[in-house]
């Protein structure tokens, strides 16, 4: 699957306020907007033998990140599956109409969620980690 901008799946006001409604979206929409950070951390955990980084992007000058993904050796994994990282960054920059800042995330999931105002796994309708593991399993990693 070709990389698709995360912004194409932005949540509606009801999806932002009601976790059950957000949960009921398609897997791609759920992991594009609202749970991308969970998918990134679960990806890293799923391939613990690889040096997978967590990366977030934001608009220049903005403190808030709007998309998070896993990165390994020039590849990125997000709601679109595995794609070359430059392609993922380009489609998101094109969608947003401006360049993006790439941030390597070094803190753990809990700290990231607190710092960037993202939900922790226990704040979803159900635990999103099993759903993320299933989603990751649908894609062949680039090293396979």
Structure explained in plain terms:
The chain has 7 helices and 5 strands. With 144 residues, it is an alpha+beta fold. The chain has one domain. It has a 5-stranded antiparallel sheet. A hairpin with a 2-residue loop joins strand 3 (75-78) and strand 4 (81-84). The longest helix is centred in the middle third of the chain and has 12 residues, at 85-96.
What's this model, at a glance?
Helix content is 39%, strand content 17%. With 144 residues, it is an alpha+beta fold.
Rg, please? 14 Å
Structural domain tally: 1
Class by helix and strand content? alpha+beta
* Strand portion: 15-25%
Provide the residue-averaged pLDDT. Answer: 96
N to C succession of SSEs: HHHHEEEEHEHH
Strand order of the largest sheet: 4-3-2-1-5
The count of DSSP E runs of length 2 or more, i.e. the number of strands, is 5
Distance between the termini: 17 Å
Helices and strands in order:
Layout: H1 13-17, H2 19-23, H3 27-32, H4 36-46, E1 53-58, E2 67-72, E3 75-78, E4 81-84, H5 85-96, E5 101-105, H6 109-116, H7 128-136
């Amino acid at each position: 699957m070709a990389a698709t901008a995360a912004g194409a799946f932005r949540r509606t006001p009801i999806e932002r306020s009601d976790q059950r409604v957000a949960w009921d979206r398609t897997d791609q929409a759920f992991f594009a907007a609202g749970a991308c950070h969970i998918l990134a951390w679960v990806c890293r955990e799923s391939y613990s033998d690889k040096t997978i980084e967590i990366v977030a992007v934001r608009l220049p000058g903005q403190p808030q990140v709007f998309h998070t993904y896993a990165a390994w050796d020039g590849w990125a994994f997000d709601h679109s599956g595995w794609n070359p990282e430059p392609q993922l960054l380009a489609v998101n920059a094109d969608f947003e109409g401006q360049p993006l800042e790439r941030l390597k995330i070094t803190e753990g999931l809990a700290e990231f969620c607190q710092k960037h105002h993202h939900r922790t796994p226990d704040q979803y309708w159900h635990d999103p980690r099993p759903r993320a593991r299933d989603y990751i399993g649908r894609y062949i990693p680039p090293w396979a």
